[in-house]
Write a structure and sequence with these properties.
The protein has about 190 residues and is an alpha+beta fold. Helix content is about 20%, strand content about 25%. Strands 1-4-3-2-9-5-6-7-8 form a 9-stranded mixed β-sheet, sandwiched between helices. Strand 3 and strand 4 form a beta hairpin. The longest helix is centred in the N-terminal third of the chain and has 14 residues.
Length: about 190
């Protein structure tokens, strides 16, 4: 219940808190919210580790938690070309919804760093099989396309992944170990 209340309050506060590039810091860390890319570095001697990720697709918000407390929030996420609804089939360009985990990372992907989400699970595969289709896979949280020098691409442009700015994925990469649970809400 406490986690739900914290998440709701964070969503409300984040929705009113400025531009999408902003990174919100947990008050318990003694770090203030800032827009300066240089200040996105972790404080010296403090190793934060996320143990839970929450993505709210309707708010375009990703919140990283440590021990039940929000430690980072990223706004303005980009999703698949068809962002509404749960991913059902390969090629539907939807971002999955449900509880998964970060199961491995790819430093050499076509996008700036990528953390793979464990989609599809057994239920996702069974649903797709009932229709004689593939559930798809290779759903990641990643940065911008490699070699793209500009600001984050506008709109929803992935094939079902979750895209952040390159600076944001670099920070998230350092915070999130493999095996971290991720909940993706509609």
């Amino acid at each position: 219940m406490r986690r739900l209340i914290s998440a709701v309050l964070l969503v409300i506060l984040a929705a009113c808190s400025g531009p999408a590039e902003e990174v919100v810091r947990a008050p318990s860390e003694g770090i203030t919210t800032t827009r300066s890319p240089a200040s996105r570095e972790l404080p010296p001697g403090r190793a934060l580790v996320a143990d839970y990720l929450l993505v709210d697709k309707s708010e375009r918000l990703l919140v990283a938690y440590s021990r039940g407390e929000p430690i980072r929030a990223y706004r303005g996420l980009a999703f698949g070309d068809a962002p509404m609804g749960h991913k059902r089939f390969e090629g539907d360009e939807r971002t999955p919804e449900g509880i998964y985990s970060i199961d491995w990372r790819n430093p050499n992907s076509r996008y700036h760093l990528s953390l793979r989400i464990s989609y599809p699970n057994a239920d996702d595969r069974a649903f797709a099989a009932r229709y004689g289709r593939s559930a798809g896979g290779d759903i990641f949280i990643h940065g911008q396309p490699n070699g793209y020098p500009g600001p984050p691409l506008p709109g929803d442009w992935t094939d079902g992944c979750i895209a952040l700015s390159n600076a944001e994925i670099e920070e998230l990469w350092r915070l999130v170990p493999d095996g971290t649970p991720i909940e993706i809400r509609p």
